[in-house]
Amino acid sequence: MADSNQASAPLLIICGPTATGKTQLAIVCAQRLRGEIVNADALQVYRHMDIGTDKPGPEERAAATFHLVDYVDPTENYSVARYQADALRVIAEVHARGRMPILCGGSGLYIRAVAYQLDLPIAPRDTDLRQALQSEAAAHGSQHLHSRLAAIDPTAAARIDPANLRRVIRALEVHALTGRPFSRYHRFSSLDRQRQPRYNPLAFGLTLDRQELNGRIERRIERMIARGLMQEVQGLLDRGCHSGLTSMQALGYRHLAACLSGRCEMAEAIDLFKRDTRRFAKRQMTWFRSDRRIRWLDASRPLESMADEISEACRAQFGV
C-alpha cells in the first residue's frame, strides 16, 4: 500500500500508441513543469537498440532528463516486475528533488504497474520445459504453440501475438506449472477491478486518425531502414542476441533478423514489420481506451497547444 505522502505525490502520464509523438510532448512538458521523464517503453530500456525503438537521441536527452533508457543489456530478459521496482525507485528520487515525474511511453502494462496499486505475482519457471517448448516451436512453428495456448487459455491467446514466441512459451509454461491460466496473472483490463492509484496521477493519451497514424508508422519505418536498422540488428546478432530473448522479439528486430538468417527477403520483412506495427498500434489503443482516467489529445495538434492544456491541468490538479 502507498503511504499518505506517496498517494498525494503528483505523477504526470503521457501515453498512447506508437508514432504519436509522446517523447516530444514529454520534453516540452518537462521544460515547463521542472519535470524528469521516466521511460515507460518496454524496449527503450535496452542498450544498443536505438534506431528500431526510436529512442530519444542526443539532442532530445540534452533537452530533458530521461530515466530507464539504455538501462539493461539486450541479453537480459527484463520483466514487468523488475521495471515496476526500478520505476518506483526513480520516481521517489525525482519527487525527493522537488521535480515532476513524467511517466511516458506506450507500454500499457508498465504504466499500470507503476501508476496503480497492482501486485505482480511471480509464477514459477522451468528451464527444461521452456527448452522443450522452444524445440517444439522450431519443429512445428510458433503458430502451432499459439494454437495450443488458445485451447487452454483463449484470453491470453487473444492478447499475445502468435509471432511473440517468448510470450507464448511463457504462457504455456505458467499453465503447465501452476494449472492456472496465464491470463489470471495479468487481469488489468478492467479498471473497475483495479486498486487505487499509487500516486496522484494525471494521465494524457495521444490519439490520431487511423489513416494518419498508419501513414506515420509507414514513414517512420522507412526512416529506420534508411538510418541503418538492418546494421543495428546485425550488431545485436553479433553480440549473441537470439530469438529467445525479450529484446529480439521486438517489432522490426525479429523481422529483420529473419531476413538476415535467410528465412525471408528484405522486402517481405519490411512489409511484415509495417503490418505488425499497425496491428500493434491498434492493440495499444484498445488497451488505453479501457482506462477512463485518460484525457485524450489529438496528436495532430501543435506541441505547444497540447503542452498548454497539460500545463493548465497540472496547475489545477497539482498547484504547480
Structure in words:
It is a single chain. This protein is α/β, with parallel strands linked by helices. The protein folds into 2 domains: 4-118 and 188-318, 3-Layer(aba) Sandwich (Rossmann fold), CATH 3.40.50; 127-186, Orthogonal Bundle (Histone, subunit A), CATH 1.10.20. The protein contains 14 helices and 6 strands. It has helices at 4-8, 22-33, 58-63, 80-96, 108-115, 127-140, 142-152, 154-159, 165-178, 210-227, 229-238, 253-260, 266-289, 303-318; strands spanning 10-15, 35-39, 66-67, 100-105, 200-207, 295-298. The protein has a 6-stranded parallel beta sheet with strand order 3-2-4-1-5-6, sandwiched between helices. Helix 3 links the parallel strand 2 (35-39) and strand 3 (66-67). Helix 4 crosses helix 5, helix 6 (127-140) packs across helix 7 (142-152) and helix 11 crosses helix 12.
List keywords for this structure.
single chain; 320 residues; alpha/beta; Rossmann fold; Histone, subunit A; 2 domains; six-stranded parallel β-sheet
Q: Biggest sheet: strands side by side, in what order?
A: 3-2-4-1-5-6
- Return the structural class: alpha/beta
Name of the top-level CATH class of the largest domain:
Alpha Beta
Summarize the main sheet: 6 strands, parallel
Distance between the terminal alpha carbons, to the nearest Å? 26 Å
Report the total helices.
Answer: 14
Count of all domains = 2
The CATH architecture assignment of the largest domain turns out to be 3-Layer(aba) Sandwich
Proportion in β-strands: 5-15%
- Overall mean pLDDT stands at 91
CATH homologous superfamily designation of the largest domain: P-loop containing nucleotide triphosphate hydrolases
